[in-house]
Each structure stands twice: as C-alpha cells, then as structure tokens.
Design goal:
It is a single chain. The protein folds into 6 domains: 60 residues, Helix hairpin bin (Helix Hairpins, Orthogonal Bundle), CATH 1.10.287; 231 residues, D-amino Acid Aminotransferase, Chain A, domain 1 (2-Layer Sandwich); 83 residues, OB fold (Dihydrolipoamide Acetyltransferase, E2P), CATH 2.40.50.140; 75 residues, Orthogonal Bundle (DNA polymerase, domain 1); 71 residues, DNA polymerase, domain 1; 70 residues, 3-Layer(aba) Sandwich (Rossmann fold), CATH 3.40.50.10190. Helix content is 36%, strand content 20%. It is α+β, with helices and mostly antiparallel strands.
C-alpha cells in the first residue's frame, strides 16, 4: 500500500503544530515559563498525532510526538567519543582552590588575576549529545571518557533536550556536554508512587536518574522526571563559537538548551571562594542536588594554552562541598589484600545513611591511621563520605567508648595466604610478601591484566577470575593463555558458547601494544600515561628491562620513586619468568619508535575532522601519536596536515585557505600502512 498524498493544508498545519509544541516544550522545560495550559498542549499534541497516524510520512525524528519511547532494546550499543569526556580534579578547601589558581597563573606566566566561570556541579549523570544539521543524532553516557553507551532513545524522551536546535545557522556538527539529573520534587513524587505500588524505593535523585537512563525500555524513561542542563561543548564543526565559556553557554541557551541560572563570573579566586560559600548556604533550598561548584578559566584561548593532563583539564577545578558525616558503631575490622600486596584495614560498620547512601564499610587506610585515630572495635565513630564518594572513618567519639572495646590487632601474616606481612622503611602501607603465591594478589593481578585499558580480554569478568583461581585452574596471568575448552565448560554457569567466546577473546588479546602490555603488568605507580612514556622512550621491552634507575629517570614524568619500582620489578626472577611465559604464549606487538626525532611524524601537528568510517577518532589519534605527531583540535598556521573525513566543515575550509596539506581517509590509511601500522 502506497502512502497517501498529503494535502498542502495538512502539511502546513502539521508544521504549525510542530512549531507551537516545540516552543511550548522550550518554555516549559527549559525556561520554566509555560505559556500553554496543559489541556491546550494535550489537544495540540493529539491533533498532531492524529495527522501523523493518517499520514505517516509526516513523522520526523524531531516531531514532538517522538518523545514517548519505543520498543525495548536488547542491549546498549557502544559509542566512541570524538573528543574525550575528561573528569575534573577536585578541591576540598579554600587553600586547595587557591593553589589551583596559583598553578594556572604560573603556567600562564602571569601575575594578573584570572577570570573564572562559576557553575553549580549538578549531582547527576554526565552525557554527550551530538547534533548534525541541527537535529539530535546521538546521545551517549560518559563511560570511561573515551567509550560510552548509546542512550539516544532514552534521552529523546527528556523534554528539556531539544530534538531540533532553535534559531538559525546552527553548526554543521555540535556536540554538547551536560548533566542529566532528577529534581528533588520529581524524585519525591517518583518514590511516593513506588511506595504506593509496593516497589523498591530509590536511594537518592542521582541513583534514580542513573537507573532511569539505563532502562532498555525507553517508555519507562519517558515516565521519569528527568532534566538536562548543558555545561559545555565537545566537537564543533561549521561555526565559530564565542571566545568565553560563559558566552558559549549563552549561545547554547539561544539554541534551545537549559543553562544553570546560578551561573556567574568571578574576577579572581577570591570571588570564586565567595561564590562557593554563597551557593553552599542556599544549597538545601535549590530545586536540585549539587555536590560542589565547578570553576573554569573563562577565556577559551587561555584554556587552550593551559591544556590537559592525562585525565583532566588544567583549566578547571571542582570545589566540593564539605562531606556529610554521621555517627555509627564500629562492629569489626577485616583486612583485605590488594594487587600489590597492600594489606588494608576495612571497618565493618552498623549501617548508617551518609550523603545519600547507606554505608556499612569504610576504609581505615593503614596501621598509622588506626593509631592516629586511636580507634577500637566497639567504638562509636564519625563516618564521612570524602568528596561524597569514599566512606572513611574520620574520628572516634571517645565519650561513648564501651568497657569491652577491643584493640585492633594488625596481622603479622597475610589473612589470605599466611605469608609474612612486611613494611618497608618509611612506608605506612604493610604488604603481604607472598606475591603471586597469594591468591588475593593473584586474583587482583589477573583482573587488572584483563581490564579494558590493559589487555582488554572481553568476557573475563571479576567473578570468573575468582572462580578460575579458586578452582585451581589459574595460578598466574600467563596461565590465561593455557586454559582449555574442556576446563571452561566444566565450570558452573559456563556454557560452550561462552567458553569459546572467552578463548577467542584471549587469542585476540595477544596482539597488543607495548604500552598496554606494560600497564597490564601492574608495576607499582605505572599507570597508562607512564606506560606510554616508557614505551615511547625505550621503543621495545628488552632495553626497558635492562635500564637502570638513572636511565629510567630520563623518561618524561618518571621520578626516583617510579624509577625504583620499575627497575625493581624487572629485577625480580618471577617477573622475568612471567614475561617470558607471556611472550611464549604468543603475545606480541610492533616495536615503537624511540625518542622524538626518530619518529616519522615527530614535531608535526595534525588535525582530524569529519567522520572517519574505518577508524574511530580516538583510534586515528592513537596511531598518529604513536608516530610522534601532536593531534590538535583546531587548524592554525602551525598545522602540518588535516585529515578530512565525510562531513568535514570549517576546519577543512580553513586548511584550504592556509594552503595546509589535506588527506582523505583513504590517503590517511595508506600513510599509516606505509609507516608499518596494521589497519
């Protein structure tokens, strides 16, 4: 059956209804200034629904009728962020915020005050919304900053998210970042309905928002009172944005986004501290939860000069509010053993509600902290969620100590394997000396080795690692590559397909990079950034293993402590044996070019624009960095080459104006292959 021809007057009326309802949504959800009574809005919406039912060709992705949700998904798809969604560093005192300001001015080589944008830090879920041609194309969670989950169908149901940007001349590509949250009133109403229905209550608005966003059935999300507030931008192509962060937010408001009405500008760090105190005083009266204030250098050019560290921008800081504290009883202390053998005392508490969650465990850090607190089992203690995240015991209510309070005895032998517990001179942390003999350390080492940022062994979850170790099937990380199909299918809840998938994932993981392999080894104090620097400096594993501490300190960001840990690790016979076993199992990588000048693209600046079809933006960036190039976000006279995929806009035009060489994706892939990178 062919679609009926739509009369012109019907097309015109549908367009009028689109505009009326879109404006009404914006006034209601974004500006909090409704102009249509609910009954009138409902009549217009039903009229449009009737027209679309009769003429399905009228249904468009930005239609106001398309916010009701759709059939459930089986799972969320994975999304790679074109521009990483970095986290923020935190300050917890005026002194720490002043120190942040000092570092900013020092890096800018300026004694003048710096202007900051001030925004309440909403206690919600960070998301990315991608618009092309003014239409919402994709919504994704932050995830690990590089990869998130596709939650487009759920986000489309949120009234404060524009499906089409308002105003004229939106950018060809606009990625906005913001927070999805649940207002206090909506949260109270949601729990009221849940209680009436005999359902489980949500603990706090943030948990309710997170649970609502992760519904596979978007029709459920559509019933939840979620809001979206924008706080910045990611990828932008086809338009020039203002030169100050606060003006960018105002432009986003003109395009239809909600911005926080409490946003302000501080002329110096003193005004930032005053703003933090003022918002702290009115925190409880706000219609939504906030857990601090975010301060950002307002000038975008200065932001670009300041740049980033591995996980956070140097130009922004989240100043958290004082942590919430409660009193409870310390019932017992247990000792956990981590990947590096650290023996950590964990307080088992009488459950108490602190900072929006029920806390039954808290860290006591180490033996020195127990002695400093003077805490005993049976004491009444004050528990704080430091930074609103990590529960910790901060003090003892001595006046409430019972007569039968017991002294906490730190173990002399590992509670897991019985090996001696040792403390190095000058270290507060006590460690199990058992190494991989200790099943606790072995489990944690294998979990780390298999994690996404390390060897990325899909399907090897924490519970399966524990099961394999407990069953005696796994005694080291190299043992992973000797697991047999028959062993796996014999495990409880392990089917043939899951077993084969795991073996396939193990086989795929054998082809890796030197930096990932170094990170996977779990050397103390060697994170992703340090592993990359070591790989880049030494080029391959053999020279790194032979390096002494003085040679190691020549590596960028490697100081005496890290150099000692790296050298000591490679001196250990069991580490050498394990590395050899992993190489014999088939793990391999292409040697990396050493140093700056030896790399073929060293000293060059490249820019990626448009949508690459074979590689993700992050994969292309990784390849360029391995070849020594710096990857910039904008085109300037200092740019050496621009890689332009489909949809490239203003960056490609600027490259042509400046006579900068450009490549399409095919030429880029050929260049990578010619430099020895397998695609």
């Amino acid at each position: 059956m062919t679609d009926k021809k739509i009369p012109s007057e019907i097309q015109q009326r549908a367009q009028e209804l689109h505009e009326i309802l879109q404006r009404a949504n914006h006034m209601y959800y974004v500006l909090d200034n409704p102009e249509l009574p609910d009954s009138e809005y409902d009549r217009r919406l039903r009229e449009l629904q009737a027209l679309e039912q009769e003429y399905p060709q009228l249904i468009t992705p930005d239609s106001p009728t398309q916010r009701v949700g759709a059939e459930p998904l089986k799972a969320f798809a994975e999304v790679h962020h074109e521009v990483p969604m970095l986290s923020l560093d935190n300050a917890f005192s005026d002194e720490e915020l002043r120190e942040f300001d000092r570092r900013v001015r020092e890096r800018l080589n300026s004694s003048e005050p710096v202007e900051y944008a001030c925004e309440p830090k909403l206690d919600g879920i960070a998301v990315s919304l991608l618009y092309r041609g003014g239409l919402l194309e994709r919504a994704a969670t932050r995830g690990d900053g590089t990869t998130g989950e596709d939650i487009t169908r759920n986000v489309r149901t949120i009234g404060s998210v524009p499906l089409r940007l308002l105003g004229g001349d939106p950018p060809a590509v606009l990625e906005v970042r913001g927070e999805i949250y649940m207002p206090k009133a909506g949260f109270a109403e949601l729990n009221k309905k849940a209680a009436a229905a005999g359902e489980k209550l949500f603990v706090n608005p943030r948990n309710a928002a997170a649970g609502s966003l992760r519904q596979l059935d978007s029709r459920i999300t559509a019933q939840r009172p979620l809001e979206f507030c924008v706080y910045g931008v990611g990828l932008v192509e086809g338009a020039a944005l203002p030169e100050r962060h606060t003006e960018i937010l105002r432009q986003l408001s003109r395009w239809g986004f909600r911005i926080n009405s409490e946003m302000s500008v501080a002329r110096d760090i003193g005004e930032c501290i005053s703003y933090h105190r003022k918002l702290g005083e009115k925190r409880e009266a706000l219609a939504y939860d906030i857990d601090g204030i975010v301060f950002k250098v307002n000038d975008i050019a200065l932001q670009q000069r300041l740049g980033f560290v591995a996980r956070a921008p140097r130009w922004a800081m989240a100043y958290k509010f004082p942590a919430q504290e409660e009193m409870t009883e310390l019932l017992d202390v247990e000792f956990q053993v981590g990947r590096t053998g650290a023996v950590t005392p964990v307080a088992r508490l009488k459950p108490v509600f602190v900072g929006g969650v029920t806390v039954s465990n808290a860290t006591l850090h180490n033996r020195d902290e127990i002695e400093r607190l003077g805490v005993k089992i049976g004491d009444t203690v004050v528990v704080r969620r430091a930074g609103d995240v990590i529960p910790q015991v901060v003090s003892v209510v001595a006046s409430k100590r019972p007569r039968d309070a017991r002294t906490i005895v730190f173990p002399t032998h590992c509670p897991v394997c019985g090996s001696p517990v040792e403390s190095a001179p000058g270290e507060a942390v006590a460690r199990c000396s058992g190494g991989l003999i200790c099943s606790a350390q072995r489990k944690q080492a294998i979990k780390h080795f298999a994690s996404r940022k390390a060897m990325d062994i899909e399907g090897l979850g924490d519970k399966l690692v524990e099961q394999l170790v407990d069953e005696g099937l796994l005694h080291s990380v190299s043992g992973l590559y000797h697991l047999q199909f028959e062993q796996l299918v014999a495990l409880e809840r392990m089917g043939q397909k899951s077993a084969q998938n795991l073996l396939d994932a193990l086989e795929r993981s054998k082809h890796t990079t030197l930096s990932k392999f170094l990170y996977a080894l779990g050397i103390r104090e060697v994170g992703e950034a340090t592993a990359r620097n070591l790989a880049k400096h030494f080029g391959d594993l053999a020279p790194l293993m032979q390096a002494d501490e003085a040679e190691l300190q020549e590596v960028e960001d490697v100081g005496p402590v890290v150099a000692h840990f790296v050298a000591e690790f490679f001196r250990q016979p069991h580490a050498q044996e394990e590395i050899e076993a992993l190489r014999q199992a088939g793990i391999f990588w292409e040697p990396e070019e050493q140093g700056g000048e030896a790399q073929p693209l060293a000293g060059q600046t490249w820019v990626l624009t448009g949508k690459l079809e074979t590689l993700s933006r992050s994969e292309a960036k990784d390849h360029l960095q391995r070849l020594g190039a710096k990857v910039a976000g904008s085109v300037s006279a200092n740019t050496d080459t621009v890689v332009a995929g489909p949809g490239a806009g203003s960056k490609l035009n600027k490259a042509r104006e400046l006579n900068i060489p450009t490549m399409d994706e095919g030429e880029f892939l050929a260049m990578l292959r010619g430099r020895g990178i397998a695609i």
